[in-house]
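name: query_chain
kind: protein
chains: 1
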Amino acid sequence: MKSYWQIQINRCIGMALSGIIGYYPMIWMAPAAAIPMTFSPPPPPPDRGATGDRGGAASRGCSVGNQSMIALVPVYKQTLKQGKTEAVSVTKVWGLTTEEYPTFWFFVPYKKSTINSIEFVLKDESSKLSQTLYRTIVTIPEVPGIISIRLNATTPRLQVNKMYHWFFKMKVICNPQQPAQREYVEGWVQRVNLNPKLVDSTKQATPEQRVGLYAQNGIWYDALTTLAELRLAKPEDPTLAVEWMNLLKSVDLENLAKQPLILH
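structure:
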């Protein structure tokens, strides 16, 4: 027959084991830790592929804060050899997406009254004859800020591993006595497939965690769009504001972090 102390010891051990067994599901069900919103740029296209201009160099003189139009996309500064001795400096404007119809983001620094027109164009230049896949007249925003343009689902979907050339064009009237002045930025987008492991991770992640996964794996357009949509849904969320700053800072666009996101 067991003594009183043996019974008490066995009872304590049983309670401890039941506590451990009951704790494990809580560990596995706990949400994953936040992923840093820092963009890890993939290797840019080789040679002269994806050259462009994301803007930001100079304004027309009538923009708010004397700022210029800018495309929210990474840039790559490279020095390429031309011949045996000469070197050429090249700026590449390029980003990856997993979407068939991705969304593009641009900062428009002008008041509505000074904008004559805005146009977005997407081209397939993989062959000698350039083909325009999408062309649209963009609604002029009511106030200066960051606007988005999503490809229309009626246009051809982006093919995997293919490069596409986009243009964002604007006509600005700084002086009513003079003709409208043309301003534009241009760059490239390339669609890729995620590896199976990353696909599983994104399916299990929250939208905020997906931003970090996209950013760390070099998928710029998806990271930016997902985070921008979160900010539009919760404009007063301080955590999202910090994450937005960190993501833009990783591609040297932190000066746009406080610009409003405009629905139009």
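note: Residues 64-256 form one domain.
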